[in-house]
Amino acid sequence: MKLTFPHMGNTYITAKTLLDDLDVDYIIPPFNNKKALEIGTKYAPELACLPLKINIGNYIQAYEKGADTVLITGGCGPCRFGYYCEMHRAILKDAGYEMDILTLEMPNQGVKELYRRVKKLAGGFNAYKIIKALKNTAQISKSVDELERLTFQVRPREIKKGSTDKIYKIFLNKALKTNGSEALKKLIKATEDELREVEVDRNFKPLKVGIVGEIYTTIDPFSNFNIQSKLGNMGIEVNRRVTISEWVIDHIIKNALHLPRDRSHIEAAKPYLGTMIGGHAQETIGNTILHAKEGYDGIVQVYPLTCMPEIVAESILPTIEKDFDIPILTLIIDEMTGEAGYVTRIEAFVDLLRKRKERTEHGRDWLLSGN
Ligand code: SF4
To answer: What residues line ligand 1, using a CB cutoff of 6 Å?
Structure first.
């Protein structure tokens, strides 16, 4: 068995940690690319959401390198994610690619079921090894997210433009070739040290923008045209509360152990969206409100065309925009989206935020001067 798994931003680091520590043979598909999207678009139904199309492209590119089994995380409704496993299976079969699909679902039956599935993946019984691998995977995913968050803070303040991007890109490539959680921990630490040494303007006060929306397109730089880096290089500090570690720890591990989970976004969203409707719609609403209360200057919602939960969230956001007086930009992405038009919209939004800030600060100075 030679496993592969789909790309979603830096998730491959978390996935490879688990597989390395379990000694499972795997192939990482090439980083998300145009060809993968073209392949997925060719085989997937036209109205399937973008992540499914890119996933199909990932599997076929990995198949060509020798992979025969796909490892994915599963989910249960109400959105299409619950059908991903079966859809992947059917699409690959119809396209003539003989690949098995293994689903590491969020087990409602608790920790025993999670353990049973990981044991099956590891191809044997070694309780110590499995528990250690799960613990290391959770730790690495948390550290990788913290590292990315550090890039969000350093990038807008760096003196020499491009320094953060350069360090982070080298890290992403080195992580591909680094085996095992211990070596990865060292690489993450060394990259963190490098980022902390980047020369920054400590007096610069960047505008702050929260990124919300569908998990795949907010996390994956290929699908969102590297929005976090683009905004950072325009001098904007971004934040994204939905992360892989939050998903692994809160969704999978805490759920399996029946531990209390972070409900802050659910509580915040309650007056506007009081129920889970699939995907990350409740996070989109709740996190927008939390960012507004934290004094953020704006919000960008990103989602793939036809994403049902985010369409609902988008219809609620104008009310939140008004109630919390915070500008919100929505960007919808599919395989036809052109980068130039997308960037123009981001630049126009940033201009609006800057003018707004200037007006507020000017008004405050005027009041303080007593004129
Ligand atoms: S959340 Fe949206 S993009 Fe993701 S599977 Fe569901 S419908 Fe598709």
So the answer is: 49, 51, 79-81, 214, 278-279, 304, 307-309
Ligand 1 atom at minimal distance to the Cα of residue 50: 3
State the residue range of the domain holding 125: 3-133
Residues 101 and 225 reside in one and the same domain: no
CATH of the domain at 90: 3.40.50
Residue that is last in its domain, among 77, 98, 133: 133
Supply the CATH number for residue 302's domain. 3.40.50.11900
How far is the centre of ligand 1, averaged over its atoms, from the C-alpha of 302 (Å)?
12
Q: What is the pTM of this model?
A: 0.93
Q: How many independent structural domains does the chain possess?
A: 2
Tokens of 368: 């303080």
Residue 259, in any domain of the structure: yes
* Per-residue tokens: 134: 């799960």
What is the number of the ligand 1 atom nearest to the C-alpha of 217?
3
Output the tens digit of pLDDT for each of the chain's 371 residues.
899 999 999 999 999 999 999 999 999 999 999 999 999 999 999 999 999 999 999 999 999 999 999 999 876 667 888 888 899 999 999 999 999 998 876 556 556 666 667 777 767 667 788 888 889 999 999 999 999 999 999 999 999 999 999 999 999 999 999 999 999 999 999 999 999 999 999 999 999 999 999 999 999 999 999 999 999 999 999 999 999 998 888 877 777 777 888 899 999 999 999 999 989 999 999 999 999 999 999 999 999 999 999 999 999 999 999 999 999 999 999 999 999 999 999 999 999 999 999 998 877 777 777 65
For residues 40 and 75, what is the distance between their CA atoms, to the nearest angstrom? Answer: 21
For the CA atoms of 132, 263, 292, 370, what is the dihedral angle to 10 degrees?
Answer: -110
SS (H, E, C) 252-288: HHHHHHCCCCCCHHHHHHCCCCCCCCCCCHHHHHHHH
Nearest Cα residue to 251 out of 238, 268, 239, 263: 263
